[in-house]
Amino acid sequence: PREAPQNPNINFLQTLKNPKFTLFALVQASGFSLFSLFCCSSPYFFINLLEMTKYQFGVAFSGVILSQLLGSLVAKMIHRKSGTEALLVLGITTLFITGLAMLFGYLAVGLTVKSILIPVSLLTFAVAFLTHAGRVGALAEEIKATRMLRAMSYLTAAFIGSIFMQFEVSSLIPFSTLIVALSLITLLGSYYTLQKDETTQST
To answer: Which of 180, 127, 193 is nearest to 157 (CA)?
Structure first.
């Protein structure tokens, strides 16, 4: 949906009491946070740990951005064909697979360019699916809350990033564990919220 003119008197607390809005808003925020965290930490992994040149890093990161753009196009196609909830499920599934692939890839071959770029390519698709589903689903509940969505995304990214950056990270285990944990939390939250909504509508 298109962004509607903002209502300066929107009740933020009342909007957050809508469980479906809160679910989809947090889904979008989680996807945005993971991609932001990768963007912030990727120079350290590629340049400091893997000793890539800045040119090589630029080429590698350009591939990640192109993958993100492709994921956004695919997300829109899937949404038009199958709907918001199907895209949400696909995003959660892709995110879970991404976390496992990153974890087991690192344990198998260590920290290499391939062990980062292959799962991150999956991550860009998962993020695109989740952010698109989250945004559309949230605005379907409250179309005037676009600024609220942005604020929740930025605050969530800042919160997760500030915790993550407190630790000296020299492997992919913390990041992959975070991805798996967020996918499971999102899965449980989505199942509970959407099932409760279906039960409420049926009664």
So the answer is: 127
Residue 118 CB-half CA count within 13 A:
14
Confidence of residue 143 (pLDDT cuts 50, 70, 90): confident
Q: Are 93 and 129 in contact (CB under 8 A)?
A: no
Write the DSSP string, 71-88. HHHHHHHHHHHH-HHHHH
Average pLDDT, the chain: 87
Amino acid identity at 10: I
Q: Which two tokens stand for residue 47?
A: 């340049």
Return the ∠ at Cα 184 (arms to 70 and 199), rounded to 5°: 100
User: Residue 203 has which token pair?
Assistant: 């009664």
Which value, to the nearest 10 degrees, does the dihedral of the CA atoms of residues 150, 152, 157, 158 take?
110
Distance of CA 68 to the CA centre of its chain: 11
